[in-house]
């Protein structure tokens, strides 16, 4: 028996409820066990610095514009601060990506921490997804202010989340600590209720 066979997602038991509440207007599902690597470094160093070597590993530069995301080769780098990013990707790339980034940061004043077990990811999608989020989030989520490729650390119904819009439908990823995941899933399912009623009519 391996660690992978023993691993349990915080919301594995919600799969049936997510499926029952799905409509053409809004859908919710968990994306468990995504790779999440916290990277901290000074990106201002010149040619040959750690940021350049990290970009070579990821296939795209770390974003330096606040609340933006860069993406390549199935990996996304979310800006969390002037010297902090969250690199996300499929579960199976965690070990290889960690090793490559660790080598790229060798000799740098930098930090690389695998925080994959710290959060799970909820995906909210559909034409009404933004309306659902706006019930509990104070950010301006209108496309003119927050569109595909945007991310932010914010509160959703009093829960700290990393919010990332991945698609224009729209589709949002909500990265939430495992201890708050069930509360947030319950809140989202409740907030989706009115759109389920509209769909049934």
TrEMBL record:
It comes from Catenulispora subtropica. It comes from the Bacteria. It holds the Pfam family SoxG. This is Sarcosine oxidase subunit gamma.
């Amino acid at each position: 028996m391996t660690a992978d066979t023993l691993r349990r997602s915080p919301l594995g038991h919600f799969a049936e409820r997510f499926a029952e509440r799905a409509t053409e207007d809004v859908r919710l599902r968990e994306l468990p066990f995504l790779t999440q690597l916290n990277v901290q470094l000074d990106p201002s160093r010149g040619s040959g610095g750690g940021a350049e070597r990290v970009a070579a590993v990821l296939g795209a530069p770390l974003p330096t514009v606040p609340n933006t995301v860069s993406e390549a080769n199935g990996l996304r780098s979310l800006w969390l601060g002037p010297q902090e990013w969250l690199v996300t990707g499929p579960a199976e790339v965690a070990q290889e990506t960690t090793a490559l980034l660790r080598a790229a940061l060798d000799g740098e004043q930098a930090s690389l921490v695998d925080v994959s077990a710290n959060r799970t990811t909820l995906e909210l999608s559909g034409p009404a997804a933004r309306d659902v989020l706006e019930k509990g989030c104070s950010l301006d989520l209108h496309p003119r202010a927050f569109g595909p490729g945007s991310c932010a650390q914010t509160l959703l119904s009093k829960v700290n989340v990393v919010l990332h819009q991945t698609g224009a439908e729209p589709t949002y990823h909500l990265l939430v600590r495992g201890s708050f995941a069930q509360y947030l899933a319950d809140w989202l399912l409740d907030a989706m209720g009115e759109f389920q009623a509209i769909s049934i009519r």
